[in-house]
Each structure stands twice: as C-alpha cells, then as structure tokens.
Amino acid sequence: MNVIRSFFRLKRFLAEHKRYYLLGIGALILTNTAQLVIPKMMGNLTNLIASGEVTRGDLVRFVVYFISLSVIIAFFRYFWRINIMGTARKMEYTLRNMLFEHLQSLSPEFFNYHKTGDLMAHATNDIHAVRMALGPGIVSSVDALFLTSVILFMMARTISLQLTIVALLPLPVMLGVSFGFGRVIHRRFRRVQEAFSSLTERAQENFAGIRVIKGFARENSEEERFREVNEFNVAKNMDLVRVHALFHPLVGYLGALSFIIVLGYGGILVLDGAITIGDFVAFNSYLGMLTWPVMAIGWVMNMIQRGKASMDRLNDIFNQRSDIDDPGEKGALPELKGKIEFRDLTFTYPTSSQPVLKGINAEIAPGQIVGILGRTGSGKTTLLNLLLRLYNVKPGTLKLDGVDIDQVSVGVLRDSIGYVPQDSFLFSATIKENIDFASTGSDMGRITEYAKIAQVFDNIVEFPKQFDTVVGERGVTLSGGQKQRIAIARALIKEPQILIMDDSLSAVDTETEEAILQNLRRIFPGKTVIIVSHRISTLQAADQILVLEEGQISQRGTHDELVQVDGLYKEMYQKQLLEEQIESVS
Ligand code: ADP
After folding, report:
1. Is beta strand 398-400 parallel, antiparallel or unpaired with respect to 340-347?
2. CA-to-CA dists, residue 582 to 228, 511, 536, angstroms
3. Segment holding 556, helix H or strand E
4. From ligand 1's centre to the CA of 379, what distance in Å?
C-alpha cells in the first residue's frame, strides 16, 4: 500500500497511459505463451524422431511451426517493448518536467539550503529509478508471476509432478540468494552513485573555481584531492563488482544443480517408462526457462523498493511549497505606478533569529531616484529582496501604491520591476538573447537602442559576432563592467515602472556611470529608480538618499544635505574625494 501511496503523484499520467501498459502487458503475456509452446513442441518432435516413424513432411511441418512461432514472438516482443518501455520513457519525461516546473515555483530560499548537486541527482538518479520501476520493473513482475506459475504448471501437470518437486529442491535456496544478494547489490549500488556524485561535484567545483586554484597555485593539491575521490569511487565500484562476481556463478551453480537432479532422476523415470524421452527434453527446456523468472522475483522486489525510495525523495521536494502567497488574478492592482512605502518595517530571515532590518520608515514617490548607501552586510540587498517579494513581510509594513505588497499579484509586481542583481548573472546564450531575456519581442533596433542607453553598445560591436556573441558560462568572456551593463540593458528593455539596481555600477568607470545615469533620467521620467551603491558618485544626483547601518536608516536626505552633517555619508564622501585626488595626482 505504501508503494501505491508513493506513486500516487503519477496518478494522472498512469490513468492517461493505462491503455499502453495494458496493451504492453497483453503482448508480453502472448510473447511468454508463445515461448512456452516451444519446449512442448521440442518434446513432441523428439518423441516422433525416437519412434522412428518421422517423415520428411513432419520435419518440414515442425520447421514451419518453429519459424511461425519465432515470428510471432518477435512481433509481440517489439509491441510490448514499444508500449511498456516507451510509456516508461514518457513517464520519465513528464516527471522531469513536473519536477523542473515545481522547482521553478519554489522561493530562492529553498535553493540556499539545497545543493545544486543534490537537486541534479534527484533529476537524474531518482527519476531513473522511478522509470526502472515503471518500465523494466513491470516487465519483470509479469515475467516473474506469469512465467514461473505457467512453467511450474506445465512441468507438474503435463510432465511429472514428482520430477518437478525433486528438480525444484534448490529453488528456495535460489530465491533466498536472489533476495539476499539483491539487497546487498542495492545497497552497494547506492554507494556507487553517491561516490560518483561526489566525484562529479569535486570536478565541477574545481572547474568553476579554476581561476582561484591557479591564482593560489593549488593544482597539485587539487589533483591529490581529486585522486582521493576517484579512488573512493573505484573502491565502491569494486565492492559492487565483487558481489556481482559472486552472485552470478552462484545462481548459475544452483540452476545447474537442478539440471543434474533432472538428468539423474528424470533419466530413471525415462528408463522406467514413467515419462517419454520427449517429456524429458521438454522438461529440461522448461527448467532452463525458469532461471530468469526466479531471478526476476528478487530483482523486481529490489527495483520496486528502489523506485519507491526515489519517489519518496521526489515527493519530499514536491511537497515543499513556496511560502509566498500569490493573489494572482485577484491581485489588488492591475499595474504599479511606482510609489513605495516602508512603515516601521522589521525583517528577520526565516532561518535566523536576529532581525536584519529594524524599524525602516521611508516613502518613495513615483518618479523619484532613491539612493541607498551602506556598508556590506547592512541589509541593502535584503531590502531589495523584500521589494521583489522573495520573502514575506508583516502586513502594513511594505506598501506599493498604497496597497500591502502581498495583495499585489506576483506577476504584476515582477513585471513592473526591472532588477539588476549584484552579480549580473548572464545566461549561456547570445548577448541579444540575454538583453531580451524578458521576451519583450523586441527587434534589433530596440535591442540596439537599449544597449546604447546602458552604454555597452560600443563594446558589443567590437566583438566579431556582435549581438550574436555567445556569452560563456556565467559570462566569463566579458569583463565585469560589460556584464553589469548588459544586465542593465536587460532590465531597462522591460521599461519597468520601478528600476532596482543592486550595486550594479561598481565595475563601471565614473564617466560611463554618469552617462548611464543621465540616460536613465532622460528615458525614465516618472519612473521610480532605486540605486544601491558604495560610491558617492552614483548616488549624488538622487532625489533622496537613505543611509543604512546595521539594518537601520541612520541618515536620510539629499547629497547636499548629507555632506553637511557628520555621519557615514560624509565620512565616505571625504574618503572617496581623497582617493580621487590621489588618483588625479598620480
Ligand atoms: P548588504 O546587501 O547590505 O551587503 P545583505 O542584505 O546582503 O547586506 O545582508 C544583511 C545581513 O543578512 C547579513 O548579515 C547577511 O549575512 C544576512 N543574510 C543575507 N541573506 C540571508 C539569508 N538568505 N538568510 C539568512 N541571513 C541572510
């Protein structure tokens, strides 16, 4: 019952594809039945030959029978493979899509606490195990049930009950071996998978951090560390090889034991005239056919257990919900105008006990440019995360156009916001595709226009393929400043009502920065802009500057006001002024 509960999530798929499974199982049973006729026919032919009355016509007849049977077997085998294995592949496809879609719906917080490697393992190993249970697992169950019972019936009823009982004496041992080894093989197989997953993770991390490794000249020690995980991996594989090496000969030996018994006892029965020579031949063929379904019993139990364990792990992910409640269509606002109010906002991360933001009060009018200044860790990114509604806030503490943020549909909210993240993450795609990531359906003219606004056009046209240049993994072929400006173009092309830039001009020189900010004012009248920065130059033109210190707003005002009073703003202003002077002198 537990197994059924685990696979319940696939109910819809299974209901829709029931027909294919049933057809496949039907074809499988027909294949098996046709195979079971062969030993009987061999027996009849042997008897005919032994009687000395066989004619050439009889031989031709038997040849035609055997050929027809093989054609039937081949046809039905094709048919069940397509239906059962094919449906299992479709199930794999559906389950993988379901998982991906679900993971996309979870909050970023989920990804902070789940390693990418683990999620990849779920998407590969676990889904593979589920497919094995619902493809080969079903085939083996049918084989185990149908073949075992019919073969035993044929042996006992049509040949000899006595011989069947004696021949099957090693069977319980074989079943025990099959179950026992199945369990050990399963356990060791898991360890192999775990070892392999650490191996790939090690390699992946190593390649991602290759610059750091080279910078610190750590190649040798990294090679050593890799050798260790690689050795561990081969050791785990050897454990598996060893148990397989023991299992297969043991099963073969037990099977051979049955044959020896049949040879002795069956021979006596033939000599006594209790069974015919044809029965003897047929019996041996049946016995040979029995090895697989008996092994399949142990195999299938393991495969279903494994599939269930994997499905349970997937269910754990499927049961995770994003804690962001989206009012969706029922959202209070069809679009945002850009007014933002923080009312005594205090925020603590779900996993932490200390508040990161404390008593934030601020009002931002539509069309204002607001600068946020603060040291690392003061809570600037957190404040932006709340605006993007990546976390929940207490009712009444964060309002957009006068409405609580949780009353606004997440779609409307995020469509209205252009967000330039701190790390300017770009996808492995062309520059053009990266700029139009929001799929605004912009033509080249518009993409070019926004690249110009973000001051990155001149760089792009210098690349041999210009806008069709593929940005490597995480945009490694671009400089930090180029990435930042492409990320800005990507946010601007959405023409959002609210633009949020999280320290996204840090790698851009002051002149270019000035040009971008001027462009913003020109193309963005009436739109709200929030700029987080360490640099005074970025902030000084803002209508309002908020200074964040340890989660609290310690100062607020315009640049001219803030440079008049003692505080973090003035301190940083003077420091940066000094730096500029030193730079210009040198
Ligand atoms: P800033 O952007 O000003 O550098 P952040 O908003 O990123 O600061 O971080 C403020 C504080 O919140 C830091 O102490 C940081 O460790 C903590 N913090 C950031 N993200 C999380 C998170 N997902 N869970 C728990 N604490 C976090």
Report:
1. antiparallel
2. 50, 18, 17
3. strand 552-557
4. 6
Interval between CA 112 and ligand 1 midpoint (Å)? 12
Question: Residue 232: its pLDDT value, please?
Answer: 94
- Examine the pLDDT at 56 and tell me if it is beyond 60: yes
- What is the mean predicted confidence (pLDDT) over 449-472? 79
- DSSP structure string for 167-232: HTTTHHHHHHHHHHHHHHHHHHHHHHHHHHHHHHHHHHHHHHTHHHHHHTT-HHHHHHHHHHHHHH
Substitution candidate for ligand 1 out of 372, 382, 501 with most atoms within 8 A of CB: 382
Alpha-carbon distances of 521 from 279, 516, 524, rounded to whole Å = 96, 9, 5
- Give the CA radius of gyration of the chain: 36
State the virtual CA torsion across 234, 239, 243, 245 in degrees, nearest 10: 40
Q: How far is CA 2 from the centre of its chain?
A: 25
Q: Which residue has the tokens 């040009």?
A: 515
Minimum-distance ligand 1 atom for the alpha carbon of 502:
2
Asked if pLDDT for residue 43 goes beyond 90, the answer is no
Contact (CB, 8 A) for 35 and 289: yes
For residues 374 and 533, give the distance between their C-alpha atoms in angstroms, rounded to a whole number.
8
For ligand 1, atom 15, name the residue with the nearest CA: 377
408 CA from centroid of ligand 1 (Å):
25
Confidence of residue 478 (pLDDT cuts 50, 70, 90): confident
Q: Is 372 helix (H, G, I), strand (E, B) or coil?
A: strand
pLDDT digits (tens, 9 = 90+) for 392-424: 888 888 888 888 888 888 888 888 888 888 887
551 Cα–ligand 1 center, Å? 10
Tens digits of per-residue pLDDT, 338-376?
788 888 888 888 878 888 888 888 888 888 889 898 888
Average pLDDT, the chain: 84
Atom 25 (ligand 1) nearest CA: 349
From the CA of 382, give the closest atom in ligand 1: 6
Residues touching ligand 1 (Cβ under 6 Å) are 112, 349, 351-352, 356, 374, 376-382
Question: What pTM did the predictor assign?
Answer: 0.76
Q: State whether residue 540 is helix, strand or coil.
A: coil
Distance CA 35, CA 393 (A): 68
**Per-residue model confidence as pLDDT tens digits over 145-165:** 888 888 888 888 888 888 899
* C-alpha span between 488 and 90 (Å, rounded): 40
Q: How far is the CA of 395 from the centre of ligand 1 (A)?
A: 22
Average pLDDT over residues 10-38: 88
Nearest atom (ligand 1) to Cα of 376: 4
